[in-house]
Amino acid sequence: MDSPKPSAQGASIRFDKVSKTFDKKGGQSFAALQDVSFDVKPGEIAGIIGRSGAGKSTMLRMVNGLERPSAGQVLVGGQDVGTARGAALRTIRRDVGMIFQHFNLLSSRTVYDNVALPLEIAGVASSAIRSRVQDLIARVGLQDHAQRYPAELSGGQKQRVGIARALATQPKVLLSDEATSALDPETTQTVLGLLKDINRDLGLTVLLITHEMAVVRDIATRVAVIDAGRIVEEGSTYDLFVRPSHPTTRSFLGGITGVTLPAFIAGRLREERLDSGGEQVIRVTFTGQHATDPMLALLAKDLGVSVNILAGAIEEISDKPFGNLLISVDALRADEARAFLERHGLLTEVLGYVG
Ligand SMILES: Nc1ncnc2c1ncn2[C@@H]1O[C@H](COP(=O)(O)OP(=O)(O)OP(=O)(O)O)[C@@H](O)[C@H]1O
């Protein structure tokens, strides 16, 4: 079955040399963002990842005008959010929906009434509200829960209400502020799946902030890594996983590419080659079409170099295969073996030597 055509085109988001300085007590100031530039295309799902205090929320809050840049511009669909006032700012805010880590639902209102709230505020007629809210509640799979109160819902269900409410005004952009951080891994997957469906069906742009690389891997096609108020690396999610260049990116990836040396090897790993020769331990990254090539078998067959496989996994990022393998080969033949693998489009990194 064909997917339904997007009914609304998402808006672009542009951070152009944005800085934000907060005044602190005692006349001092604090630079929360410095010279940040990042572009999100219409209809794209993009992520901003960083540690606590890096400046993620400040960036996100500039997209709906809750913060204004001290320098530079934030543009949504070409409109400068920082200088917008009055009706122009209200239009931008209607075009930008937001979901939150702790859902921010009104506990005294039912699911139906929470989703209806933004439409009531916008002065939409009650008959139009009814059909729109029913559609939204069905879209997020809560049609049997419309008259329940937030306290009667699970975390995942509450976030579904948050998503339906954020979509009520038919925004062009959906901002997600750590929307799955309070959820268990399984519920996280269903909520991320729902966001992907919404992005595909409605064509709206999604910008999410997170401190979890797994969230970026599972949903975003582009990502910016932010550290102490600066973007230290950005690019396609796939490229960032395959060739991370900044230590912060590497540290975020450390926990999730899932492939670590078995303890009995890690404990014996040396930086220098042993006088006796020994084995070189190599990380091999397989990308794109090469992820499924029988390269190690060819290495043994063509060069006569035998390979010990120490650990490995193949996963999928942005629908492309990506493999990570830890191997060891005879240290005296290692340069030759790595050159062979690189010639065949694989990436290699020397981790050390074992006896
Ligand atoms: N209104 C404010 N006044 C003063 N300092 C602020 C203000 N808002 C944020 N900051 C500071 O700016 C820095 C960045 O904050 P921000 O909330 O953007 O970080 P974050 O990456 O979203 O962190 P977290 O994941 O913990 O929410 C922090 O050091 C924070 O204390």
UniProtKB/TrEMBL annotation:
GO CC annotations on file: plasma membrane
One GO-annotated biological process of the protein: amino acid transport
Sorted UniProt keywords: Amino-acid transport, ATP-binding, Cell membrane, Membrane, Nucleotide-binding, Plasmid, Translocase, Transport
Keyword ATP-binding: yes
Domain named ABC transporter: residues: 13-253
Highest rank taxon of the organism: Bacteria
GO-annotated molecular function: ATP binding; ATP hydrolysis activity
Family: Belongs to the ABC transporter superfamily.
Record's function text: Part of the ABC transporter FtsEX involved in cellular division. Important for assembly or stability of the septal ring.
Protein name per its UniProtKB record: Cell division ATP-binding protein FtsE
